[in-house]
Specification:
By secondary structure, this protein is of the alpha/beta class. The chain folds into two domains: 105 residues, Four Helix Bundle (Hemerythrin (Met), subunit A), CATH 1.20.120; 191 residues, Rossmann fold (3-Layer(aba) Sandwich). The strands form two sheets. Strands 3-2-1-4-7-9-10 form a seven-stranded mixed beta sheet, with helices on both faces. Strands 5-6-8 form a three-stranded antiparallel beta sheet, with helices on one face. Helix 3 runs antiparallel to helix 4. It is globular. The chain starts with 8 loop residues before the first helix and ends in an 11-residue tail after the last helix. Bound molecules: 1,5-di-O-phosphono-alpha-D-ribofuranose.
Length: 319
């Protein structure tokens, strides 16, 4: 019997941290997964090219299985594995290290570029409502603040995991005045907002935006009130499989994020549902801001075809 590929502990640790959401946010997950593949390659003691390749595929499979919705994760793994080339271990190792370094620096650069484009939509005195915590959305606010644009923010706490607290803290570090509100207050506070600014975990070929649960209803309310809906999403959030009709899988997380055991027992026999994401149809979105410019949601498919073609291969599967 052949031995299972030997994986670096950092691969297991990174996979656990992504699954537990200690590492979270679509771009950050992609970056961490690429870094883990880099470590696997750097420290591998594989004695043949075939074993090295099998290790990288196994590492990518473990990382891939952590969370299903953010397409940045499979996009990152595909990018790194498709850059793996060479006839011996040293050539393969160097190619993976090079590809990982390029991927990570492109990711940073894309976010900076996207931020500057998004900042162009924000004007002095604007009030921005946020949902969850998105590094792409934050990049737009950060670039605007750097330009001297005065903004205020209404930050939704974003149950069940309260990622709004991260957004609130980072906005205060930028000097942006913050009003923190419970999720149920969003409709009321949209009266005071000029923009709804959110990130994305995946964007489908028809321009639908998959993002933190609550985004869809919020976007409907925002459009109803004439508040602009802006989605900040690097092109790594484009979901190539949706070009061929696949649906984006919505992650269902543990009941314990919604209710603790004692309260649940006090209530009695109930079902608990905890979908982490929802789908906002393109008609409720004004613009998707990427590092390649801003797009009306219906035309994002053009960028998707340019970047991915029809390629939806999964190089982490065994050949
Ligand atoms: P960036 C997050 O998901 C949020 O839904 C956020 O909008 C999205 O990832 C994108 O984040 P989670 O990991 O890539 O908190 O813009 O479940 O940082």
């Amino acid at each position: 019997m052949t031995e299972p590929p030997s994986l670096h502990p950092e691969v297991h640790e990174t996979a656990d941290r992504i699954a537990e959401m200690e590492v979270r946010g679509a771009a950050t997950i992609a970056d961490a997964a690429a870094a883990a593949l880099g470590t696997q390659a750097a420290d591998s003691d594989a004695e043949s090219a075939a074993v090295f390749r099998a290790e990288l595929r196994a590492a990518a499979r473990e990382l891939h299985e952590t969370r299903p919705t953010a397409v940045s994760l499979p996009n990152a793994l595909r990018y790194v594995l498709s850059g793996m080339e060479g006839d011996n271990v040293e050539e393969l190792r160097r190619s993976v290290e090079r590809t990982v370094a390029r991927f990570r620096s492109d990711l940073d650069e894309a976010q900076d570029r996207l931020g500057r484009i998004g900042a162009g939509r924000l004007s002095d005195g604007d009030v921005v409502m946020t949902h969850c915590h998105s590094t792409d959305a934050m990049a737009c606010i950060e670039a605007a603040v750097e330009d001297g644009t005065e903004l205020e923010a209404i930050v939704k706490e974003t149950r069940p995991r309260n990622q709004g607290h991260i957004t609130a803290r980072q906005l205060r570090e930028l000097g942006v005045p913050v009003t923190l509100v419970v999720d149920n207050a969003a409709h009321r506070f949209l009266d005071d907002a000029d923009h709804l600014l959110v990130g994305a975990d995946s964007i489908a070929a028809d321009g639908s935006v998959v993002n933190k649960i609550g985004t869809a209803g919020l976007a409907v309310s925002a459009r109803d009130r004439g508040v602009e809906v802006m989605v900040a999403a690097q092109s790594i959030k484009l979901h190539p499989k949706t070009l061929t009709g696949a649906a984006v899988e919505i992650e269902q997380r543990d009941d314990s994020e919604v209710i603790d055991e004692k309260t649940r027992a006090d209530i009695g026999d109930i079902e608990v549902a905890n979908p982490a994401f929802d789908v906002t149809p393109p008609r409720h979105v004004d613009a998707i801001v990427t590092e390649r410019g801003q797009f009306p949601p219906e035309s994002v498919v053009v960028l998707m075809r340019e970047l991915f073609g029809e390629s939806v291969d999964e190089p982490w599967q065994e050949p």
